[in-house]
Design a protein that fits this description.
heterodimer, A: 65 residues, mainly beta, Ubiquitin-like (UB roll), 38% strand, B: 257 residues, alpha/beta, TIM Barrel, 5-stranded parallel sheet, 3-stranded parallel sheet, 16% strand
């Protein structure tokens, strides 16, 4: 399935957001995810079904003033 | 016993020095400096992750040090983007506290007052504890109070400029009038600047660049901690009045006559 993640389009084999994070090798801590510009609360990540061409933004807390 | 604690919304702070996490050379230096500062509230930013790279995880040491996290909305150019950034930050860091920053111009990073007021109103209604970064504008501070801001964060000088309290006359008015805590943010470049803000009656200061870019960030962070405590103690002690002419500290006895 083709997904657009942070602007990069690529094929992924996964059904939900938790599985996607595992494929991307990103720990869930300190992350926020929006799918098609709608923020998905982390409790919903395991059930959130992804579909072809979903536009996914993944954000992370970083150093800043 | 008298406890001089600062209360903002649901949190009580013993330290009146808030800090940022930006610009430190590495994670260890950041952690050591923040611990030396005794700060209990630290700001963080949010960005889209780099899928290829492995970002430094700065969150763990901050959580381990029991710091309260204050995500900012840096990068937002208007109220809509700032509200979105705040909602993302709430998800990422599991806190409803937000340092609202809307500065569309990258050269001076001066905050947009109109967008900031609009975003504050929206975020307060959505249950956020909002600490907006603003120009030292006493009128705007009252407008922010009216829409339920938790504190105000007027600037001393442009972010990262280390120029000190160039807005001192307006900070005095803000402190005199404010019904919410006043946190002087931005431009504080030396412990003396922080002490001055505290002597004037500011409730807290936020310092980042001056610590992070010092030759010895850990020692500088300690220096800021001491300065903030000294300034606060001086404010509580009540400064003597200034005069135009001398006032003798020793009795003017005429023993030489």
């Amino acid at each position: 399935m083709k997904l657009i993640i942070n602007g990069q389009s690529q094929e992924y084999v996964c059904q939900d957001l938790t599985a996607l994070l595992q494929i991307l090798n990103k720990p869930a801590n300190g992350l926020a995810i929006a799918v098609n510009e709608q923020i998905v609360p982390r409790q919903q990540w395991p059930q959130f079904q992804l579909t072809e061409n979903d536009n996914i933004s993944i954000f992370q807390a970083i150093a800043g003033g | 016993m008298f406890h001089d604690h600062l209360v903002i919304a649901d949190k009580t702070f013993r330290s009146r020095l808030f800090t940022g996490t930006g610009k430190f050379a590495d994670k260890q230096l950041m952690t050591d400096s923040l611990l030396a500062s005794e700060s209990e509230l630290v700001t963080m930013a949010l960005k889209r992750i780099d899928l290829g790279g492995q970002e430094d995880d700065i969150l763990q040491p901050l959580i381990a040090a029991k710091m309260n996290l204050l995500p900012n909305t840096s990068g937002a150019r208007n109220a809509k983007e700032a509200v979105y950034a705040a909602e993302l930050a709430r998800e990422a860091l599991q806190t409803n506290w937000v340092k609202l920053e809307i500065h569309p111009d990258p050269k001076y990073l001066l905050p947009d007052p109109i967008e900031t007021l609009a975003a504050t109103e929206t975020l307060v209604k959505a249950g956020f504890v909002v600490l907006p970064y603003i120009h030292a504008d006493p009128v705007l501070c009252k407008r922010l109070e009216d829409v339920g801001t938790a504190a105000v964060m007027p600037l001393g000088a442009p972010i990262g400029s280390n120029k000190g309290l160039r807005t001192v006359e307006f900070l005095e008015i803000i402190i005199e009038q404010s019904r919410v805590p006043v946190i002087v943010d931005a431009g504080i470049g030396a412990p003396s600047h922080a002490a001055l803000a505290m002597e004037m009656g500011a409730d807290a200061v936020l310092v980042n660049t001056a610590m992070a870019v010092a030759k010895d960030p850990v020692a500088m962070s300690k220096a800021f901690s001491l300065a903030v405590q000294a300034g606060r103690s001086a404010y509580l002690a009540g400064l003597g009045a200034q005069g135009r002419v001398a006032s003798a500290s020793s009795p003017l006895t005429a023993f030489l006559d």
